[in-house]
Amino acid sequence: MDTKTTLQITLQEQVEVLEKGFDLPLPETPSHRVDGGARAWCTLLGGVLMATVTFGYVNAFGVYQDIYTRSQAATASNVSWIGSTQLFFLFAMGLPAGKLLGMGYLRQTNLVGSLIYVFSLFMVSLAHTDTYYQVYLSQGVGLGVGAGLLYVPAVAVQAHHWKRRRAFAMGVVVTGSSLGGIIFPIMLNRLFQSSVGFEWGVRASAFVVLGLLIMANLLMSDNPSVKGGGEKPVLKNILTDIPFMLSSFGVFVITWGIFFPYFYVQLFAVLHGVDPSIAFYSLAIMNAAGLPGRVLPGILADRFGPFNIIAPVLLVNAALIFALFGVSAEGGIVAFVVFYGAFSGAFMTLWAPCAAALAVHPNEVGIRFGVGYFMSAFGTLIGAPIDGALLGKSFLWSKPIIFSGASIFQNYEAFVRLNVAH
Length: 422
Prior knowledge:
Layout: H1 3-7, H2 11-20, H3 38-53, H4 55-58, H5 61-70, H6 76-92, H7 94-102, H8 106-126, H9 132-156, H10 166-192, H11 197-219, H12 224-228, H13 235-239, H14 242-254, H15 260-271, H16 276-279, H17 282-304, H18 306-322, H19 330-357, H20 362-391, H21 398-421
């Protein structure tokens, strides 16, 4: 396929992209096997480990939110800025990290990101929890920047090794965020509530992160033939790709609400009188439910196209947020975290294949991920603090529930209209 022709994609081709996904030309050489082989599977496993220690650790922020808020070190809204800043940099750093991946600097980016991430996590253990700026800089900024250099390339590089099963491979990598969201909330709650305490609890988690990052760095590699294939990605062409920009803006608004339960479900459970032994496991249960939710949609997306799967997933997520109005007992909390974990995990899995499907060459995938995640980063930055401000000191849960549910629902309608229009 002529690369110059593909860059000027026709309306009909855009329609086919939205319905089934774009069949990216992926170079295959005798030394590199596509859709299998040791390098592909090792990179997949390394990507899972990267997602586990980055997005997975961020998914455990609800533990910190609960501790910081109930210790009255800061208001719920101010504490939320720490977690939302983490998410902001996790996504925003995808822009330079995606560009570096396209230039062939995966290993160097992973090394720098790993050093920043581990150093910042140890700094969290040294920060005084009653000194806001220390926690904000180490946990919000430091961890966020390090995670951003690691997470987006870990997902995007799968496009170098997988073609027919690309959405499935990306979905498997994203399951790492659920694995981390299971392991770290349980680990941190246990350590913080024991004689180990906060400081050594954080350090223990940092040593676990260090070990997993070493393995991930050794396992992951890019495909050198992709770096030189096709024309260099032109940012202007990507920014004028209407379906891509519409979907990216939709994700920006969706992130105002999609992370609300990840920040507040443990606090919600505690303040509704749920047994602490269940409340402290709520985040872990939600992330455990996300495991099948992050794999099965990828399989369906490979068959039916990611855009055809993401719209109903968004509708269910919005409905579940509004269902919190009727949740007050332990059974309701458990049911909510199970279903929300599965369907929110599905959304987080599906947007990456959507962005990859709109690329015209594998060397574009990294920068498309970067642009899309950069836009969504601003949504994650303001979403949780808005929830915290709406919640207020009197903990009026109805306001953040309406805000979060509406943010998701209105973009369900946008994705449906986008598909119907084409």
